[in-house]
Amino acid sequence: MLNKKKINTVYLSLGANIGDRVSTLNDAIILLKLLCGDLVQKSVIYESEAWGFESDNKFLNMCVEMSTYLTFSEFTTEIKAIEKKLGRTEKSINSIYKDRLIDIDILYFGHTIVNSREFTIPHPRMHERRFVLKPLADIAGDIIHPVLKKTTAELLRECKDVSKLNVYLGQ
Fold first, then answer.
1. Which residue has the higher pLDDT, 163 or 135?
2. Domains in the chain: how many in total?
3. Is there a domain that residue 75 lies in?
4. Prior bond to 135 cis, omega within 30?
């Protein structure tokens, strides 16, 4: 009997606001493909002001869809390793945000709902952030949030965040 592993569809948000932001995002995608699975599609890159803290550095953000045989636990371990390899030293502490070389957030992992000390999936604040919803809507506008029961397109229309996003032309 063959051991069939489940294929999971994963949506990620990638962001960077210091260093060579485009190279960092591209390096993250290369490592994601190498360590986590197949890249199905990616959004364009958007540039925006920092969200939740003051910074002179603008963020580049994008979303990707991946297909993986990894379990949730295996996937999160690889994401942490990729962030560390790309220079990320720590996640935000007590929701205090700061400039970062790379940030990779799991938005959706299949139909999995996780509420633990370490992770909340779907991402608990994605519906509040235009810089997440816009690139996600570009690649998955019809995906239904399993908790809020709305599509990404609906969440984007209802989002109260009015931050300005610009397609980054230096891609």
1. 135
2. 1
3. yes
4. no
Q: Is residue 1 part of a domain?
A: no
How much is the pTM? 0.91
Beta-bridged to residue 8, according to DSSP, are: 68
Q: Return the pLDDT at 1.
A: 47
**Confidence band (pLDDT; 50, 70, 90) for 51?**
confident
Q: Are 53 and 68 in contact (CB under 8 A)?
A: no
Q: Decide if 136 contacts 107 (C-beta within 8 A).
A: yes
pLDDT digits (tens, 9 = 90+) for 83-140: 999 987 765 555 566 778 899 999 999 989 999 888 899 999 999 999 999 999 999 9
Hey, how many other C-beta atoms are within 10 angstroms of the C-beta on 113? 12
Give the CA radius of gyration of the chain.
15
98: CB partners within 8 A, 6+ apart: 53, 55, 92
| Domain carrying residue 15 | 8-167
One-letter amino acid identity for 67? S
**Nearest Cα residue to 156 out of 138, 137, 140:** 137
